[in-house]
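Quick one, tokens below. Sequence please?
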């Protein structure tokens, strides 16, 4: 059997929608290649997926199989949680009792002689499922202690007494005008806690980014998808990018690109990059596709600039239009969630 290299990308889109209706599955996308790096196009493959608890070799809490077919680019899409169940119940997984690890096994001939392709930790994909099973979050923390009052300002000087009238009593002298004392400093803010999704920041695309061949070496910022936040201490931050793209190609061609998350101008190392291929044929031209990626970061105190960037990933193909401004069907979004510790 050929040794198969499989490049996998976990995608979870729109997990911020109503948790009461969160689907008990998530998208799973991969590209199958042989040991020379060549893709395996138009081929039936067999997959066995396992979720292990605690360690990469820990207890299997759920296992299922899928039969899938790769497209002309070796790409396949399935829904984890929607296959033929071998053991466990997907909806009964307690995502709060992790960590959990995702194991992939593959038979490139489409059978059941599976080859282990590796195990990776699930970091942020099941957040919507965890929110559904864990309730609406912890109770609101107690109100912080009121800060001390500022010092009282100095009393203004007394005005001079008016002159004594001669004959009839003269008018009363004007009231003296004193300066108002300075306002005392504001006491420190009381400390409290907030539930998981209180601190959420969302920005939207302002215009379209067009990219085309040849392959670029850096990511170009998508217009409008930038958010600056300041953290006062060690904090987890969940960044998500969603949107749509359209190839300009006609006839039989394609557009290949990636969308990544950048922190202070640097691509984040822990995932956060989605690779997309949009194809056309003689019947359908200038087709659309959506993109989605996210990354969970642990950061210290400081000011951070989060943004979404894209780059073209092939030597050939057609130009692709990514995201857009208000009213555009392509308009993307950048969502930053600060999760208090």
């Amino acid at each position: 059997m050929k040794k198969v290299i499989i490049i996998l990308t976990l995608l979870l889109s729109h997990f911020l929608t109503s948790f009461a209706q969160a689907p008990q599955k998530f998208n799973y996308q991969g590209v199958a290649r042989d040991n020379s790096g060549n893709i395996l196009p138009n081929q039936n493959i067999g997959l066995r997926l396992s979720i292990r608890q605690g360690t990469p070799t820990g207890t299997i809490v759920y296992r299922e199989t899928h039969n899938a077919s790769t497209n002309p680019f070796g790409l396949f899409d399935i829904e984890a949680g929607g296959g033929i169940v071998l053991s466990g119940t997907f909806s009964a997984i307690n995502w709060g009792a992790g960590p959990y690890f995702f194991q992939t096994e593959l038979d490139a001939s489409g059978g059941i002689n599976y080859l282990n392709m590796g195990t990776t930790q699930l970091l942020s994909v099941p957040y919507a499922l965890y929110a559904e099973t864990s309730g609406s979050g912890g109770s609101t923390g107690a109100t912080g202690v009121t800060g001390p009052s500022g010092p009282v300002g100095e009393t203004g000087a007394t005005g001079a007494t008016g002159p004594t009238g001669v004959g009839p009593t003269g008018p009363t002298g004007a009231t003296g005008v004193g300066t108002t004392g300075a306002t005392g400093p504001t006491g420190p803010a009381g400390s409290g806690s907030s539930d998981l999704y209180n601190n959420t920041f969302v920005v939207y695309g302002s215009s379209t980014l067009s990219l085309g061949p040849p392959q670029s070496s850096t990511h170009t910022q998508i217009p409008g998808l930038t958010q600056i936040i300041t953290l006062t201490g060690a904090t987890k931050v969940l960044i998500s990018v969603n949107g749509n793209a359209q190839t300009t190609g006609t006839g039989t061609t394609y557009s290949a690109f990636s969308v990544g998350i950048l922190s202070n101008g640097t691509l984040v190392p822990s995932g956060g990059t989605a690779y997309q291929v949009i194809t056309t044929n003689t019947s359908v031209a200038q087709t659309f596709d959506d993109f989605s990626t996210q990354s969970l970061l642990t950061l210290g105190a400081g000011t951070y600039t989060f943004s979404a960037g894209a780059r073209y990933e092939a030597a050939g193909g057609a130009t692709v239009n990514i995201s857009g401004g208000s009213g555009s069907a392509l308009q993307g979004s950048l969502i930053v969630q600060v999760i208090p510790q």
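Confidence is low (pLDDT under 50) at residues 7-20, 189-197. Helices lie at 127-133.
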